[in-house]
Amino acid sequence: MSRPAKYKDIDFSPPQAVADAAEKGLQLRSEFSRGGTQVGVARARDLKNRANLSPDTIDRMVSYFSRHETDKSADNFGNEDDPSAGYIAWLLWGGDEGKNWCEGVQEQMKEADQKS
How many domains does the chain have? Predict the structure, then answer.
């Protein structure tokens, strides 16, 4: 995957904790038959496999988390025995670890943009 040279020092591969959250989301989605869209499932597969993501994907992840932060206040968010669809979807995108990671990567991208 080709990305701008200004981003050469940024690691775009998800850390293990993000991969683990995505894998958990896939497992819960399979078990409970709810949560997430096909886009979310595809994102989870990339995260689980620790694929090198594009800058655009990082931006989409940040956008997802900002739109869906309210899902955390729903009933059964975080309940592993009867998880809300929003909880499963949140995990598909990497969970809290994914949110923190993609926001950090986006910040590094902004810093690189300002330098160039």
Answer: 1
pLDDT value at 6 more than 80: yes
Question: DSSP label at 52?
Answer: P
Range of the domain at 61: 15-115
DSSP-derived letter for residue 5 is G
33-64 confidence digits (pLDDT tens): 999 999 999 999 999 999 999 999 999 999 99
Say if CB 97 and CB 18 are below 8 A apart: yes
Indicate whether 93 belongs to any domain.
Answer: yes
Which ranges of 1-116 would DSSP assign to H, the alpha helix?
Answer: 16-32, 38-48, 55-68, 85-92, 95-115
